[in-house]
Write a structure and sequence with these properties.
With about 350 residues, the protein is α/β, with parallel strands linked by helices. The chain has 14 helices and 12 strands. A hairpin with a 7-residue loop joins strand 9 and strand 10.
Length: about 350
Amino acid sequence: MLGCDQMLSGARPVTVREKLAELSETADAGLMPDVYGDGPVTVLEKRTAELLGTEAAVFFPTGTMAQQVAIRYGAELTGRRAVALHPLGHQEVHERRAYADLTGLRAVHPTAAPRNPTAAEIMALAEPVGTVVLELPLRDAGFVLPTWPELADACTAARAVGARAHLDGARLWESTPYLGRGLAEIAGLADSTYVSFYKTLGGLSGAALAGTTALAAYARNWRHRYGGQLYQQWPAVLSALTGLDRQLPKIPDYVRHARTVAAALAELPGAVVFPRPPHTNQFRLWLPHPAARLNEAALALAEQEKIWFVAGWRDTETPGQAMTEVVVHAPALEWTARDVVDAGLRLLDRIQG
């Protein structure tokens, strides 16, 4: 099965051999494997900095590590041990609160509303913070984005209270259509930006932290201290470069088609889609059935009809109501709205049959 982010797809996962063949096809023939961060790592860092319009970028094996460094930098630069985080943010929900346990910082929550904090909420923080983190999109609120004016005002407010603005941009690549701005203009609002190379670009792993040359120098030191100075990382780096070449140009198509898919899924009996229309190529879907039965039906559909529809269902606080996350990637572009509805009905037939 795929991970917790489920892709509407009729395609099977690629094998290890196929993935290695893809990397060999796209690699520069003269590019040598890296040794402790040179070679292809340097190529990827330079390209990322150019895309985001920053002075520099530093490759990290994980986004969790990259974000720890960004938050630590803000604390040391400002002398403030608090960081403004959303309670649904990645650091709180998916990183085991490493900012607190490893860095000794504490969180201040500007808002509990299912969205990023507003400028007014940042200005009203009860205590000084070193960094204000804005997650684009806020995944655990339903992949929701602020508007461009809201984002710009929030970053301005962060600086007004003496903090750094940091973008948790793991899914920044797919945020550009909704925000109506390019990557460099979005990253230009903040003091630092983290991006992921595997979530949408299809890389094996890895992330980058982009910002000033001073941040980059600090990040390289702390990457080493955190254990991120690996001897060789060229497979992950090559897959990231392949994603930038092949997937990044297609992302606007994914976002556009996600609106078609979401509207079609909303036609299923009892279905709820949020947000509608989706802000990115990802959104949430609820159906009035237990998660176990939906997951069983999804697996049966895959085995019997070779269609990987949507799975990863989990039960909600409402009995008999389950939720999943839908991610629209390349295979879904071949699906019409009618195809989506038909597959959804066949899924439901397996539950009711």
